[in-house]
Target: ATP-binding protein
Amino acid sequence: MEVKIGVRSVHRELVVETDLTAAQVEELIGEALAVDRGMFALTDTKGRRVVVPVSSLGFVEIGEDEARPVGFGGTL
Model:
């Protein structure tokens, strides 16, 4: 699943490909927001970790749980 993270005062968003579900990502965001000076952290599909202070979060966009098929889907 693709997760886009907007960071305040940064013009480009961070794009993280993760194996987590949308519900799991939402849970992590909620936990980070509940803690004073919280940190939002995700691990991508290659094992790299992205950590953003909650105070710097602009937005988090969570992609779809299921991948869409590629192509036109028609048969000849």
Summary: Residues 2-62 form one domain. The longest strand covers residues 2-7. The mean pLDDT is 89. Strands lie at 2-7, 14-17, 39-43, 49-53, 57-62.
